Amino acid sequence: FYTTLEKAYSQTKEQDSSEKALNLKLALSALDSLKAYIDWVDADLIIGSPIPLSLLSILSEVPLRLRGIECLLIMVNRKDKEQFLFLLKHMDYFSKATSISTGNKADDYLFLKRVTQVLTLLGLNQMAIDKSSQIFFRPEYTKFLDLMLTASAHPSITISEYVLPFWSKLLNSEFQNSKEHLRQISTGLLMA
After folding, report:
1. Most buried of 17, 98, 142, 157, CB within 10 angstroms?
2. What would the mean pLDDT of 26-39 be, rounded to a whole number?
3. Contacts of 131 (CB under 8 A, 6+ apart)
4. Quick check: 34 and 54 in contact, CB under 8 A?
5. What is the pLDDT of residues 46-83, one digit of tens each?
6. ∠116-118-123 over CA atoms, to 5°?
7. How far is residue 99's CA from residue 143's CA, in Å, rounded to a whole number?
8. What Å distances lie between residue 157 and 3, 9, 29, 160, CA to CA?
9. Can you give the pTM of this predicted structure?
10. Which of 126, 21, 110 is nearest to 68 (CA)?
11. What does the alpha-carbon distance between residue 134 and residue 49 come to, in Å, rounded to a whole number?
12. Which of 89, 55, 90, 88 is nearest to 74 (CA)?
């Protein structure tokens, strides 16, 4: 799947419109197949492959990004979801992808909903493992919290509701003993 996806994707950038459309269809079909594959294959096989990073890079490619984020959603919603927490260290891909507007409001909205679902699940999964939740206040996680705050302030009630379980669990976690962390979060949430 990965080889087909990479080949078709790279050829969509190089060819004329007729072959580009064909390769785009092939890439979309490979992503659809990958969605089924991700759900049942051993997590170590996925993590040991370039698939997760390829899916992250696809998030910035408008014709492929919705299928790419759906693959990531399946990945972080598996039984062995804790193995995919490394995605928290790649928030640059999510930041870049959410800043791209296609001009089609319905597609942009659906994509943003899926991104918010992925981020919320990543946060909840991380807190299920690390009960202290101190990890979110390390410098490498500031982009994650910024994305969550942005989703909280989104005008769509649905998108802002998606992040509520994360904030509820974070605010009820053991981190609340740190007044500095509480001040950081509450200021951001109040602004949202």
Report:
1. 98
2. 89
3. 173, 174
4. no
5. 999 889 999 999 999 999 999 999 999 999 999 888 88
6. 95
7. 13
8. 39, 34, 32, 5
9. 0.86
10. 110
11. 30
12. 55
